[in-house]
Amino acid sequence: MSEEELRLCQLPMTSPVAGLGLAKMKLDSPQSFLDVEDVEEVEDQQLLEPEAWRTYMERRNTLQEFLTSDLSPHLLKRHHAHMQLLKKCSYHLEILPKHLALGDQNSLVLPSTMLQLIDPWKFQRMKKVGTAQTKIQLLLLGHLLEQLDHGRLELDSLLESPDPRPFLAGWGLVEQRLADLSAIMDNFLAMMVPGRLHVKHRLVSDIGATKIPHIRLMLSTKMPVMFDRKESVAHQDWVSLRWFVTIQPAAQEQFELHFKLLEPQTQQECMQCGVIPVAACTFEVHNLLPNRTYKFTIKRAESYTLVYEPWRDSLSLQTNLGPPEGLTPTRLPSLPLTVPSER
Question: What angle do CA 55, 57, 58 make, to 5 degrees?
Fold first, then answer.
């Protein structure tokens, strides 16, 4: 053996063997090796001192816990679903009179009675304030939810960084970001409930010696009205419609059912439309044209306290094909009745 070959045999086997790849090593050895993530973790640990590595792992675990609890994908998905629901709700002014002091004869005034005492012009002005506040609140909720989505993506990217040193160096900014996102989440949760309207002036003046309590105006939500897609069915010249509200109100509500024929072909067909007041959650619309598509829309009837209703549910149904041309249902040929013969 030459001196050169002897020198090569005495060299330590390092990078040439590692260069063969992890998959190659697994095939050549009967023992299981570290997986890719473990290898990467060992390589990262070699970049730091032991104390710094422990600090890095603690802070990394803190960040992972925040992302899996306070800002989990499941939680954000629920908030997005709730946000979509709020966009479909209708918003109303709720009158909450304050109680008078103990001993007053007029200790309680019902909201319906109070509504009659309020100046109509002032109440209309407060409805405009309620409309503006509702729109602003929905816009702010959407903006806060976008910040939460962006914050999660931002923090996720920190965990995927291959080098732990920038993570440690910028931990102060990470802590501030966690605090900011926690505050954003608190604001989002607080704004999901409609708030109180600030009344600058009394809406009800004193009437003689009668004491009228101050009035509190609150924004309240009503769940959206939606068609039951399974129970709403079209027939040849009529349709059976059914709708529901997720949370049923205590009192029966009034609804407005709108319908119209899509793509009318004659002036007479343009008359196939209308608005029907309904005091139930079911209705049948008759005298429709066969084999045509109609659009139906359901909404709550207009109320005096309504301030904002951005959405209403719509449903399109096609009536069934009618009898052959020239035949009416009463003139359809009848099939002969077959009676089995006795043996």
Answer: 65
